[in-house]
């Protein structure tokens, strides 16, 4: 399982990279492997401000649909448009081209409370 040490993780299997007040987020390698072949990504919250833990979209795989949860409170400022035509990018490159959203973070202190790579590895 690929768990980059430069990222933080949630118990809901999302990853976060924080640069200044902007966070990029997606689902982990573990999450995509558990879901299987992803066929559709629905992020319906572009432009919305949501709290940490709120649902911002759904990821549909061949066998199931999983909610995507906000890893940090903030405004969704960008959605990965490439996933509309290529949802399989989440399977192929979950920490790169398969990112889901960019968030303008409103409570940066939440980032420190997320799991580091070691704690996330212990969780899974």
Compact description:
By secondary structure, this protein is α+β, with helices and mostly antiparallel strands. The protein is 21% helix and 36% strand. The protein has one domain (8-117): RNA polymerase II/Efflux pump adaptor protein, barrel-sandwich hybrid domain (OB fold (Dihydrolipoamide Acetyltransferase, E2P), Beta Barrel).
Outline the structure in words:
The model has no long low-confidence stretch (mean pLDDT 96). The chain has helices spanning 29-35, 82-85, 89-92, 109-112, 117-123; strands spanning 8-9, 14-19, 22-27, 38-43, 49-50, 55-61, 65-69, 74-79, 101-105. The protein contains 5 helices and 9 strands, in the order E-E-E-H-E-E-E-E-E-H-H-E-H-H. It is α+β, with helices and mostly antiparallel strands and 124 residues long. The chain has one domain (8-117): RNA polymerase II/Efflux pump adaptor protein, barrel-sandwich hybrid domain (OB fold (Dihydrolipoamide Acetyltransferase, E2P)). The strands form 2 sheets. The chain has a 6-stranded antiparallel β-sheet. Strands 4-6-7 form a 3-stranded antiparallel β-sheet, with no helix packed on it. The radius of gyration is 13 Å and the shape is globular. Helices cover 21% and strands 36% of the residues.
């Amino acid at each position: 399982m690929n768990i980059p040490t430069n990222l933080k993780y949630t118990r809901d299997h999302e990853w976060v990279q924080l640069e200044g007040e902007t966070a990029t987020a997606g689902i982990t390698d573990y999450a995509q492997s558990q879901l299987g072949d992803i066929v559709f990504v629905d992020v319906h919250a572009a432009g919305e401000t949501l709290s940490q833990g709120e649902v911002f979209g759904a990821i549909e795989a061949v066998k199931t649909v999983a909610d995507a949860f906000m890893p940090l409170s903030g405004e969704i400022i960008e959605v990965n448009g490439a996933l509309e035509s290529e949802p399989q990018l989440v399977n192929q490159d979950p920490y790169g081209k398969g990112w889901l959203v960019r968030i303008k973070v409103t409570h940066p202190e939440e980032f420190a409370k997320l799991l580091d790579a070691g704690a996330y590895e212990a969780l899974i």
